[in-house]
Amino acid sequence: MEMRGLRLKAIVLLILFVLLVLCSTFDTCNARRSTRHWRARRSSSSSLAQKKGKAKGKGGSHHHGGGGTPKQKPKPDIAYPPSSQVSSLFNVLDFGAKGDGMTDDTKAFQAAWAASCKVEASTMVVPSGSVFLVGPISFSGPYCQPNIIFQLDGKIIAPTSPKAWGSGLLQWLEFTKLRGITIRGNGTIEGQGSVWWTNTQFEDDPALRFYGSTNVTVTGITIQNSPQCHLKFDNCESVLVYNMTVSSPGNSLNTDGIHLQNSRGVTIHHTELGCGDDCISIQTGCSNVYIHNVNCGPGHGISIGGLGRDNTKACVSNITVQYINMHDTMNGVRIKTWQGGSGSVQNIRFSNIQVSEVQTPIVIDQFYCDRSTCKNQTSAVALSGINYENIRGTYTVKPVHFACSDSIPCSDISLTQVDLKPLQERYHMYDPFCWKTYGELYTPTIPPIYCLESGKPTSNRILSDHDSC
Ligand SMILES: *[C@@H]1O[C@H](CO)[C@@H](O)[C@H](O)[C@H]1NC(C)=O
Ligand SMILES: *[C@@H]1O[C@H](CO)[C@@H](O)[C@H](O)[C@H]1NC(C)=O
Ligand SMILES: *[C@@H]1O[C@H](CO)[C@@H](O)[C@H](O)[C@H]1NC(C)=O
Ligand SMILES: *[C@@H]1O[C@H](CO)[C@@H](O)[C@H](O)[C@H]1NC(C)=O
Ligand SMILES: *[C@@H]1O[C@H](CO)[C@@H](O)[C@H](O)[C@H]1NC(C)=O
After folding, report:
1. Are residues 219 and 168 in the same domain?
2. Residues 342, 198: one domain?
3. Do 286 and 406 lie in a common domain?
4. Atom number in ligand 2 closest to CA 238
5. CB neighbours of 8 closer than 8 A, spacing ≥ 6?
6. How confident is the model over 285-326, as pLDDT tens digits?
7. Region Disordered: which residues (predicted)?
8. Which atom of ligand 3 is nearest to the CA of 219?
């Protein structure tokens, strides 16, 4: 019985195989002669392309079994990707990209995107084994179909000539106004930023920027040597970043790792961040942000702010940062605001933070100023409900620095299980510092913190509409 069954199966398989060979030959001879040439190394594409039916749009390549071929089962020996709903693949090589690291492939990327954009849940493929030189480009909705995947297995490099970047540009690779966009793969985005690190004429040129999009996922990839910020989310909702790497030298100027602004519902986890500025920077308009299992360093730590610059209003709430390792960073967890701002920072939790060789692990600075002097002003972004729990390790300058606003002191600051030791006992280190900081120690701390004021600040200003978030 068994044997017969097996032999039968073998025969069926053989017939299927012959049919497949026949029809694929038929397909290649018959149909796509013109621009499309078969590429043997596209293993991942061909396995994804088993879906039947013609792909829409010009770029939809690699489909077997079109036309009059008989109904057939897919090749049994090919593993399906978990999401077999993928309906179309658009490989940049099919749109004229050279991938030699020298030819400008921007137009090919634009064309591949235009094709991907038209098909729901399509995949734009940047294949491994090639290096693509791409200038500033916008992968832009809002008229694209939802749930596009940008499969990055190759390497994308930025032009190094300032001319190629143009003037007044806000980013290099930009994804805007999309519903459901995923960047995944084991590829690299290489900013070639060293020429920029000495030149501060640009405020904010992220290598990869998402704007006004929902359901954004970034995973697997590496972003390195960005001229400035590596990855930025602005006006986004439902963002997931995991298992990815940001890598730039510690002395590269203004190179934030991940920058969040006006974004809600953000989760970042299992990510390696090494750069020359904040590993993660959380700016105004962010709420419900959850960051965990992140390694940070080199860099300036994880920061909320600078908020309230130039008398602006800032609102940040519901931020949780936990299970973080920081090594060789300037700060650990920091909140920084400029004098003169308004609005509030509320309900923040920093827990299970392991620091080593961090200059100042815990920082609140409401006198933040990156110029030589800043005017003293009474208004400030109000800080309350900031919880520190289980912060441990070594520091090199000062364990805790709380400098709160005179007119709007920080309230409801709590510390639990803080255990911070100087890296080298023999050097003079600063003691914990607090100014206008109200809150509670739930457990004794190492070193002891005597400067926290208990209760609520008496001079608490009545918040006006202007301040409410
Ligand atoms: C990256 O992924 C591609 C396609 O999935 C694969 O062919 C390649 O071997 C992978 N490269 C590495 C370095 O893992
Ligand atoms: C985002 O994804 C969630 C869950 O997959 C889905 O319910 C929601 O409709 C999506 N939102 C948009 C705007 O696509
Ligand atoms: C993380 O990403 C790499 C590619 O950079 C991939 O090979 C690996 O399987 C991913 N791991 C998880 C747990 O997703
Ligand atoms: C912050 O969290 C609280 C409690 O979970 C919730 O009620 C509130 O709506 C959240 N704030 C924002 C801006 O989502
Ligand atoms: C601001 O106030 C501080 C503390 O009162 C004072 O030391 C400093 O000189 C003032 N700065 C300016 C620019 O007025």
Report:
1. yes
2. yes
3. yes
4. 1
5. none
6. 999 999 999 999 999 999 999 999 999 999 999 999 999 999
7. 34-78
8. 2
